């Protein structure tokens, strides 16, 4: 078993690592589809110089939304996103975690393709669509947690999850840079068409390739399947969820507080930084996208290193998961 473990854990051709790489591009799409409007709205609401029939110059905006309306639009995604977090975790075992993850992104990608048409129908219609996109994307993280419970050996979970989740930051970096370029040189509509198509293509590959468990995958080697199943063990029959114990747990609330704080900063920058850079620094939109992407490039590097370090400490130095998480949190606070 040790030889199988060594061989399997080091090979990027192992099926579970193929899934991790596909999940990386899945989360790449999740965040690209989420951030595109933050960049596009700058172009959509900028002043355009024109000339009337009497040769008089004047300015207008294609979408005459004030800062309050823009803030409502950019935040509307999260009204839907927060609703499906817990239901997503409940649904995953019933409908299939891989299917839920794939169809959640597919629905968002399809809605993104129709965003230019819907935007011209009015602000209210666009807000409604963004709320729907949030509902669909809200199931992605719970679905992926459920999928890894079937695919990830305990001592590789940090590594496999890190590969997938770092797609969040890489997707944000690439989308901010490319969306700024596309909006500036090909029109704001191209932002939604390009990433909508990319999302649909990825979903087709994911839904065809990824199965719910090693036992259902015909392309996995018998050695890897045996290794994964023996590492995870037999899952016990689920009983009732101990909600009272969960809600009374200090570690649970500590995780919630840490995650809330990280998300507050992350999404404030994600939604407001492009507009701030455009309004205050007067950067061109392609440069605005590049500057706004820098914090997320640093995050992408840090997340990869953190996941590898966590697995190294747990496997080679027998350090507990609690100790690793606590000290990573301390480093984050100091930074």
Secondary structure elements and pairings:
Blueprint: H1 2-10, H2 15-44, E1 47-51, E2 57-61, H3 67-81, H4 85-95, H5 97-113, H6 115-121, H7 123-137, H8 140-151, H9 157-186, H10 188-209, H11 222-232, H12 243-247, H13 250-281, H14 285-316, H15 321-334
Antiparallel strand pairs: 1-2
Structure summarized in a few sentences:
The chain is mainly alpha-helical and 335 residues long. The chain contains 15 helices and two strands.
* Average pLDDT over all residues: 83
> Structural class, please?
mainly alpha
**Secondary structure: helix percent:** over 70%
Q: Please compute the radius of gyration using only Cα atoms.
A: 22 Å
Read across the widest sheet, the strand sequence of neighbours is 1-2
How many beta-strand segments?
2
- List low-pLDDT spans: 1-10, 326-335
Order of secondary-structure elements: HHEEHHHHHHHHHHHHH
Morphology: elongated
Summarize the biggest pleated sheet: 2 strands, antiparallel
Strand content: under 5%
Gap from first CA to last CA: 41 Å
Tally of separate helices: 15
How would you describe the overall organization of this protein?
- This protein has helices at 2-10, 15-44, 67-81, 85-95, 97-113, 115-121, 123-137, 140-151, 157-186, 188-209, 222-232, 243-247, 250-281, 285-316, 321-334; strands at residues 47-51, 57-61.
- It starts with a helix and ends with a helix.
- It has a two-stranded antiparallel sheet with strand order 1-2.
- Strand 1 and strand 2 form a beta hairpin.
- Helices cover 78% and strands 3% of the residues.
- The chain contains 15 helices and two strands.
- The chain is elongated, with a radius of gyration of 22 Å.
- Helix 2 (15-44) packs across helix 13 (250-281) and helix 9 runs antiparallel to helix 10.
- With 335 residues, the chain is mostly helical.
- Mean pLDDT is 83; it is low at 1-10 and 326-335.
């Amino acid at each position: 078993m040790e030889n199988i473990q060594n061989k399997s854990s080091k090979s990027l051709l192992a099926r579970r690592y193929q899934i991790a790489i596909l999940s990386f591009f899945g989360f790449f799409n999740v965040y690209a589809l989420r951030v595109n409007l933050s960049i596009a709205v700058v172009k959509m609401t900028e002043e355009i110089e024109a000339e009337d029939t009497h040769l008089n110059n004047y300015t207008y905006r294609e979408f005459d939304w004030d800062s309050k309306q823009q803030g409502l639009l950019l935040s509307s995604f999260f009204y839907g996103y927060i609703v499906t977090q817990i239901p997503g975790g409940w649904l995953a075992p019933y409908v299939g975690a891989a299917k839920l993850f794939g169809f959640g992104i597919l629905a968002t990608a399809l809605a993104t393709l129709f965003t230019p048409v819907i935007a011209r129908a009015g602000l209210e219609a666009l807000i409604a669509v963004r709320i729907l996109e949030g509902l669909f994307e809200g199931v992605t993280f719970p679905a992926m947690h459920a999928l890894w419970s079937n695919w990830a050996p305990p001592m590789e979970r940090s590594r496999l999850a890190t590969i997938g989740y770092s797609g969040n930051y890489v997707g944000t970096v690439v989308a901010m840079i490319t969306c700024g370029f596309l909006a500036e040189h090909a029109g704001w509509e191209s932002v939604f068409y390009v990433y909508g198509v990319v999302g649909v293509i990825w979903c087709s590959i994911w839904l065809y390739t990824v199965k719910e468990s090693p036992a259902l995958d015909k392309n996995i080697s018998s050695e890897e399947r045996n290794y994964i199943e023996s590492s995870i063990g037999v899952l016990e029959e689920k009983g009732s969820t101990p909600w009272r114990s969960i809600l009374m747990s200090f570690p649970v609330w500590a995780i919630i507080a840490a995650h809330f704080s990280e998300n507050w900063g992350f999404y404030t920058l994600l939604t407001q930084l492009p507009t701030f850079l455009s309004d205050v620094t007067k950067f061109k939109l392609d440069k605005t996208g590049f500057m706004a992407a820098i914090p997320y490039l640093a995050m992408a590097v840090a997340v990869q290193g953190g996941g590898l370090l966590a697995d190294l400490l747990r496997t080679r130095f027998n350090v507990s998961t609690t100790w690793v998480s606590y000290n990573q949190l301390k480093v984050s606070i100091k930074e």
